[in-house]
Amino acid sequence: MESSRSRKRTRQAHDCAAAPPPEREVVARGGASPPWREDDRDGHFVFDLGENLTRRYKILSKMGEGTFGRVLECWDRETHEYVAIKVVRSIRKYRDAAMIEIDVLNRLAENEKYRSLCVQIQRWFDYRNHICIVFEKLGPSLYDFLKRNRYQPFPVELVREFGRQLLESVAYMHELRLIHTDLKPENILLVSSEYIKVPSTKKNSQGEMHFKCLPKSSAIKLIDFGSTAFDNRNHNSIVSTRHYRAPEIILGLGWSFPCDIWSVGCILVELCSVRSLHTLYFSSTSLVIVFLTSHFLGGSIVSDTRESGTPSNDGEGFGTSTRGYDTESKLFSSEIF
């Protein structure tokens, strides 16, 4: 795994507006909240640790930051528990994406059986032009755990358990006709932060035994549904972070549920070997690999973009527009079980 490589992709314009959202709680200025501040030049919420995010939440730390905004660890004065609050940038496209994510999160929460598979939304509110989504507080992402562990791979048995849970969560999304489109180790969180130390097979230059950390619990949850696509609506031509992007996306052939399965496979290889399966840095190189693979499989790849000039978004006609690499022939998550 290359620690210095870019791990993020640029968010694309979303293909549809969110379903009508629940009643918003608009929090007024003043009260226990800090003085009104201008956002930074990128639209991020500006804060100091120890300040309040409305009267209910006290800001304790910044847990992370991404294209969408920032995640803050807060203390909930009403429930007396720690929560993670995603504070979205005050820019229209990110606010729209947040409303789509809220819609997806509410759909995922409808089935109690599967609530253990995906992060749970507790509530949301609009604060000073920032959509704030309150989540249960979970442990570190699989990527952060590997990074803190000096990129030592997880045991195969543990990766197998991660894979089982991940496929189960993806299968549930697919049943709801939802495609995550941005599966990667950063978006898979351990439920608990607790870990144990075990001897490693490696030794230092003095011959002393190394130790590595393993999570006490193998329970994981899927997060970040801001890029989730609805199967029956128009799709962006480019989705997924480069290292986990399926060949049909690179080739502009259109994509559907199988692109999530490709990402899952890349993730599991990476967790076992700590090397990205997709270590290629240029789409053109990736394209050559896919063409060569198709050639040795005895077929050829012909995109329907040759005739129409635009990639197919509806996923129809894969059987006639491609030979050798059939995007619809890949297994769905429910079949892999």
TrEMBL record:
Disordered: annotated span: 1-35, 306-326
Domain of life of the native organism: Eukaryota
Alphabetized Pfam families for the sequence: Pkinase (PF00069)
Domain Protein kinase: 57-337
Coiled coil: none
Source species of the chain: Zea mays
Listed Polar residues bias regions: 308-326
Molecular function GO labels: ATP binding; protein serine/threonine kinase activity
Residues passing through the membrane, by range: none
SUPFAM superfamilies reported in the protein's UniProt record: Protein kinase-like (PK-like) (SSF56112)
Record carries keyword ATP-binding: yes
Cross-referenced InterPro entries: CLK_kinases, Kinase-like_dom_sf, Prot_kinase_dom, Ser/Thr_kinase_AS
Chain intervals with Basic residues compositional bias: 1-11
Protein name: Serine/threonine-protein kinase AFC3
Kinase listed as a keyword: yes
Keywords linked to the UniProt accession: ATP-binding, Kinase, Nucleotide-binding, Serine/threonine-protein kinase, Transferase
